[in-house]
Design a protein that fits this description.
alpha/beta, 7-stranded parallel β-sheet, 40 helices, about 40% helix, globular
Length: about 1050
């Protein structure tokens, strides 16, 4: 046969109706008999199913129920069964009827049987094999025309999947198939009505696949259903790779997804119906109810990751960690929910449940509402799902764990309260799904979670062998010290499934896979690059504008007092940032940007977020933006604010501001903090935030972001990604950044644009170096450590936390006194840094390995208490007052365009290292000198397009990790005379090559070149050391 669409169609059918494909070849004759006419030949209704096949299935699998049904029917039992079936679909929807069947006059009927989780139920397995799964080509779905769909898949006569195929060799592509679904297939047809027959519509050609779950004419939305350019679960972009077997590129659709057993599995465990009811109180007091319905079919990366996790778990059992790096906008909540339900029902070859409970953990103090709603919306046929939200206590969590509830959703912070109350976990296994896995997984809450759930019998046997003791001699249940020792490291009964878009280095080592070359990688990747290229999220860097704020500050007093340099510098910077003129200029830009850009986006529905550096800045912006709106007569703009707690303005006596006090809806009613999101979605235009809503805020109408805050690394990615949610009519986003450079943002995003990995594992023995350095201060002895640990481990003290705290702090008093009397301020600062580093790294290391070092663990217990008792030294209070004045001010646009990211760029972390104690000597400088240095950074020549040479060089070198490391580890002389000198020479030469005209004056004057080098060395050494 020639290369054409029919050949393509036939090749697909050939696989599907083969023994491997599992489907039966059929025609649409049975569906045509469902076109009903009255005695005069007038059309009455379309069954849109093969009623004879459906009834045959029911007769074969449920003979008793069918016999009784037939007996009750006076005539035409097939037609009456159709009516009973259709009534159930009308009331409950097809997804529900497929999953649960329906009742008719007291009898329960199943229209499909799914594969049982175990082999114990042979009758269910027999019924599963009796499903009639048919593949039909050229399906004529309507009595009103002769149109046909290329291919349809039906189970027991019920049409569930429809496919339109195109072939590039005949000049048509997937775009033609999508257009056909949108323009030539009437969504009012019975076969295409939502949640009544067809559940999934595919469009496919030789290279690409797309999918939709609802036909809505020209508004039909098709999602890409491709593997990724390098295959599923690995780093890559949009599209599909070559087929390794040499077949069709899109063969995965029918060989992997639509193969009979695979599709029935998707139908049973993935496809879900979700209904959202939202009530809005109108100005007249009436309540408007809006209902949104949708059917969720897994995107390919979701289907792939869940199945790969399930397969690996079934093959290897519990005791493994998995890191899933899925971009924001990837449908992570659904992936977590599907993973949880699959793991909760997973059995091994011996028909034993692999996990006793699946526990979904988030490190947010308030349970993520989106995740909570997603989990709760799925069917609960596998057993009880317990949501331990903010309305419930740790006692509820304890009961759920001890009762063996199948799925438990909770926050990490509830485990420290119950860890020692959970019953015996010997022989039990748990799956812990971590939402947004980050550094909190290395802290005490994560350790307490492991102490609550871990089966430590293997670790106890290992410890007994090291101690030359019999296991019977050791009782971890009554020995707190021993229990803590053996809880460290990984455990054979605990598996962690960690989901995040932005994995950090520690996250990779704890949850990632170690490859043969020693690097650590995620188990599964759906990258930001692929999500953007597939259109699942917006490219938030495509329209990015940066500004540089030029200031010049002058001394406003006659004398020139000595002041703490770094503190004065920060206060002067804050003075400039909060200066009314600065706020006013930027507020005008904010409002005009909203009017010119945001208000015209998303069909006039676009919204803006303004990210500020502090709560006070947010408050001042809020009132200045409103003042400008009134001044210009822009009364229609609705401005809201979001921040936690309360804040006062030092320039306004007796002032106090809270979010709920400042926010009002369009009717003038107060808006509580819990209402802010909803009111902003319904009525708001501009939301001004300070450390709030920069993560986890899902508002698809958010189009524009104004940034007036320094953002770095993960924080930059999480904040700006608030814009990336897609919605109908949203074709772009816009960012205006007053603080960060395009290079800063590019560096932050590049790390997470593709796969993120870790160079190698940490050298855990570095902890002993820090331990030795702590001992060199001679503040405590082994006797001090023994005293504190004996108090800590005394069972009587553990019954009363007050007694424990009092006795330990009393025992530490002599150490605290030696700290204050024997060390100077600089030594105290260094000691605090060292002891906190020791505690933090011990927590991290024990997540990875078991060291069984009793002396080290005792010192950790001691230091964990001591570190919290040592306050920072009192610093000199210095008030800026009216000592300075803003002399010059200018906003200068420095970049406008798209910030491009490298598809092949590395996102690899270096090996984690322990931070060393570094100097924090607060130098004294005369106020005039501090102001001069500030102006060196921020003023420059206030002329169009000019920048200060020093600022350019400092900006470039501030990103040099070698310089930063040298400043924090080497002495000042090595830094200034060796490391910095070479870096300065290279940076200056590179800058000259980039802009020879601007830098020629520097190279033509050796004295100026040397003076600038000396000044920058001093300033940068100080700043690096203070980080």
């Amino acid at each position: 046969m020639a290369d054409n669409e029919k050949q393509f169609e036939q090749d697909i059918e050939s696989f599907l109706i083969s023994p491997k494909g599992g489907w039966q070849k059929a025609t649409d004759a049975g569906y045509r008999t469902g076109f009903q006419y009255d005695s005069t030949g007038v059309f009455t209704e379309n069954y849109a199913l093969d009623i004879e096949t459906l009834c045959t299935f029911v007769k074969n699998t449920q003979p008793v129920q069918w016999a009784l049904f037939e007996k009750r029917c006076k005539s035409d039992p097939q037609k009456k069964f159709y009516k009973a079936f259709q009534n159930a679909v009308d009331m409950e929807g097809l997804v529900n009827v497929l999953r649960h069947g329906f009742k008719h006059r007291g009898q329960e009927f199943r229209v499909i049987y799914f594969k049982p989780e175990t082999k114990l139920n042979q009758l269910a397995l027999t019924h599963y094999k009796e499903n009639i799964c048919q593949c039909i080509r050229q399906w004529h779905y309507s009595p009103h025309n002769n149109n046909s769909v290329d291919m349809m898949l039906a189970v027991n006569g019920i049409p569930l999947v429809a496919i339109e195929l195109k072939d590039q060799l005949t000049g048509q592509t997937i775009d033609n198939a999508i257009a056909q679904w949108m323009t030539e297939r009437d969504p009012r047809e019975e076969a295409f009505q939502f949640n009544r027959r067809i559940l999934t519509y595919f469009a496919a050609d030789l290279y690409r696949v797309a999918m939709s779950t609802r036909l809505s004419g020209s508004k039909t939305y098709f999602l890409p259903f491709n593997q990724g350019s390098n295959g599923p679960g690995v780093d890559g972009g949009a599209g599909n790779p070559q087929n390794p077997t040499g077949g069709y590129v899109t063969a995965y659709l029918w060989e992997t997804v639509l193969q009979k057993d695979s599709f029935l599995d998707i139908l049973q465990k993935f496809i879900s119906y979700q209904k959202e009811v939202k009530k809005t109180t109108l100005p007249d007091g009436k309540v408007r109810t809006d209902t949104a319905e949708k059917i969720i079919f897994p995107r390919y990366h979701q289907l792939d990751v869940v199945r790969k996790l399930v397969y690996h778990t079934r093959e290897h059992g519990p005791g493994h960690n998995y890191l899933i790096q899925h971009s924001a906008g990837s449908g992570k909540s659904n992936s977590i929910a599907w993973t949880a339900y699959r793991l909760a029902s997973l059995h091994d070859d011996e028909n034993r449940a692999i996990y006793n409970s699946v526990i979904i953990v988030t490190d947010r103090k308030v349970l993520d509402s989106q995740l909570q709603d997603t989990i709760d919306s799925f069917d609960h046929t596998l057993g009880s799902v317990v949501l331990i939200d903010e309305k419930k206590s740790s006692k509820d969590l304890l009961k759920a764990v001890n009762d063996g509830k199948r799925i438990i959703v909770t926050t990490l912070q509830k485990f420290p309260v119950i860890y020692d109350l959970v019953g015996d976990t010997t022989g039990k296994a748990f799956a812990v799904i971590v939402d947004e896995a980050h550094s909190s997984q290395t802290g005490q809450s994560a350790m307490k979670l492991k102490m609550a759930l871990a089966d430590t019998s293997d670790a106890l046997a290992e410890y007994a062998e090291l101690e030359w003791k019999a296991e019977e001699e050791l009782d971890a249940s009554n020995d707190k010290f021993l229990k803590e020792l053996i809880t460290a490291g990984k455990h054979s009964n605990l598996s962690f499934y960690a989901f995040t878009a932005t994995p950090k280095d520690k996250t990779l080592e704890i949850f990632g896979e170690e490859w043969i070359d020693g690097t650590f990688h995620p188990f599964h990747v759906y990258s930001m690059r692929q999500a953007i290229e597939e259109g699942f999220i917006m490219d938030v860097l495509a329209n990015y504008t940066t500004y540089k704020t030029c200031y010049k500050v002058a001394k406003n007093i006659p004398d020139n007092p000595e002041v703490p340099a770094s503190k004065a510098m920060k206060l002067i910077r804050r003075y400039a940032e909060l200066h009314p003129y600065n706020i006013a200029q930027k507020a005008a830009i904010i409002v005009e940007t909203f009017r010119e850009v945001t208000s015209k986006a998303i069909g006039g529905k676009g919204k803006m977020m303004v990210v500020t550096a502090s709560r006070l800045a947010a408050v001042r912006y809020f009132y200045e933006v409103q003042r400008y709106i009134r001044q210009q007569g822009y009364d229609s703009l609705q401005v809201m604010i979001a921040f936690s707690g309360s804040v006062t303005d030092p320039d306004i006596p007796d002032s106090e501001y809270t979010e709920s006090m400042m926010n009002k809806d369009t009717d003038g009613n107060r808006v509580t903090e819990s209402q802010t999101k909803d009111v902003f979605h319904e009525q708001g235009d501009v939301l001004i935030v300070a450390e709030k809503y920069q993560t986890g805020f899902d508002e698809p109408l958010l189009h524009t972001m104004i940034i007036d805050k320094k953002l770095r690394d993960v924080k930059a990615v999480q904040t700006i990604s608030r814009l990336n949610r897609i919605c109908p009519g949203k074709i772009d986003t816009y960012v205006l950044d007053f603080v960060n450079t395009a290079e800063d943002i590019q560096e932050a995003f590049q790390a997470f644009y593709t796969e993120t990995s870790l160079e190698s594992e940490i050298n855990v023995d570095l902890i002993y170096t820090t331990q030795k350095k702590l001992r060199e201060y001679k503040l405590y002895t082994d006797e001090d450590i023994d005293l504190v640990t004996s108090i800590y481990l005394d069972p009587e003290n553990n019954k009363n936390n007050v007694a424990l705290q009092g006795k330990i702090t009393n025992a530490l008093l002599p150490v605290s006194e030696r700290y204050n009397s024997n060390l100077d301020q600089q030594q105290r600062y260094e000691f605090r840094r060292q002891i906190r580093s020791f505690v933090k790294w011990y927590n991290y290391i024990t997540q990875i390995v078991r060291m069984f070092d009793k002396d080290l663990h005792k010192e950790y217990i001691f230091c964990s208490y001591l570190s919290r008792l040592l306050p920072s030294d009192e610093t000199e209070v210095w008030d800026l007052g009216n000592k300075v004045t803003l002399e010059y001010y200018k906003l200068e646009e420095t970049f406008a365009g798209s910030i491009s990211l490298d598809n092949d760029g590395s996102g690899q972390y270096d090996t984690p290292t322990m931070k060393k104690g570094s100097a924090k000597q607060e130098s004294k400088s005369q106020l005039e000198e501090v102001i001069e240095k500030f102006n060196e950074h921020y003023a420059g020549e206030i002329t169009e397009g000019d920048r200060i040479l020093a600022e350019i060089l400092m900006s470039k070198m501030s990103k040099d990790d070698v310089l930063r490391k040298s400043a924090q580890q080497d002495g000042e002389q090595i830094f200034v005379n060796s490391v910095f000198s070479k870096a300065y020479d290279k940076t200056a030469m590179d800058a000259y090559k980039e802009s020879s005209q601007a830098f020629s004056v520097l190279f033509s004057d050796p004295r100026k070149y040397a003076a600038l080098k000396s000044a920058l060395a001093e300033i940068m050494y100080r700043e690096f050391c203070q980080e």
